[in-house]
Amino acid sequence: MLLSALSLLGGLLAVNTVTLNERATGGFVQSSSGQASFTMYSGCGSPACGKAASGFTAAINQLAFGSGPGLGAGDACGRCFALTGTADPFSPAYTGPFHSVIVKVTDLCRVQGNQEWCGQSTSNPNNQHGQPFHFDICEDTGGSSAFFPSGHGALTGTFTEVSCSQWSGSDGGSLWNGACLSGETAPNWPSTGCGNKGMSCGASRSRKALTVG
């Protein structure tokens, strides 16, 4: 009886170890809340998570996404976040009004070509506007028009991971094998959804992912 119980416990620990190792790889920096910058983009129909969506969606910076370009869906895929703008880095005197929206992450804002906003790395964790996270909000599904005040297309502010039951929208079909939005049903970070893939920008092979919050 005791031997059976010990065997069961050992099996559970092994499963947990596998889950943690899958989650804590690659040097990615993933937090359930914090400070961020926000911009907008169009052409969101073929997102890096492999599934488009009809509601408000966003791309997240590569260091938080959990995967590099062409490596598949990162652990950010499918997670939902409440975003709130608080300042315009290009118009410091602007005091609002600012808005909040809930978005689902479906896409990657890669480092290459987006250094200003999505250039965070393990050696330089903030972007050029001093923010550790960035959300590029999709224009196609209306998220950007609901979030950005007229004439203000770039903001800084805060984000908080929330249950996707608070998000309004629906997922599309898979665009390729390995498509994943499992973050929508996973508990908040540091839980595992789709899992991280590959190595973050600037991470060494021995470095573990940093999870905060």
List the helices and strands and how they pair.
Blueprint: H1 2-23, E1 29-31, E2 33-41, E3 51-53, E4 57-61, H2 62-65, E5 80-87, E6 100-109, H3 115-118, E7 133-138, H4 143-147, E8 155-162, E9 171-174, E10 210-212
Parallel strand pairs: 1-10, 2-7, 4-6
Antiparallel strand pairs: 2-8, 3-9, 4-7, 5-6, 5-8
Can you tell me about this structure?
This protein is an alpha/beta fold and 213 residues long. The protein contains 4 helices and 10 strands. The chain has helices spanning 2-23, 62-65, 115-118, 143-147, and strands at residues 29-31, 33-41, 51-53, 57-61, 80-87, 100-109, 133-138, 155-162, 171-174, 210-212. It has a 6-stranded mixed beta barrel with strand order 2-7-4-6-5-8. The longest helix is centred in the N-terminal third of the chain and has 22 residues, at 2-23. The radius of gyration is 18 Å and the shape is globular. The relative contact order is 0.30. Mean pLDDT is 86; it is low at 1-24 and 204-213.
> What is the radius of gyration?
18 Å
Mean pLDDT over the full residue set: 86
In helices, the fraction of residues equals 10-25%
For the termini, the CA-CA separation is: 40 Å
Helix-strand sequence? HEEEEHEEHEHEEE
Number of helices: 4
Low-confidence stretches: 1-24, 204-213
Largest sheet: 6 strands, mixed, barrel
Structural class: alpha/beta
Question: Per DSSP, what share of the residues sits in E-state strands of 2 or more residues?
Answer: 25-35%
Question: How many E-type strands?
Answer: 10
Q: Give, in spatial order, the strands making up the sheet with the most strands.
A: 2-7-4-6-5-8
Q: Please tell me what the overall shape is.
A: globular
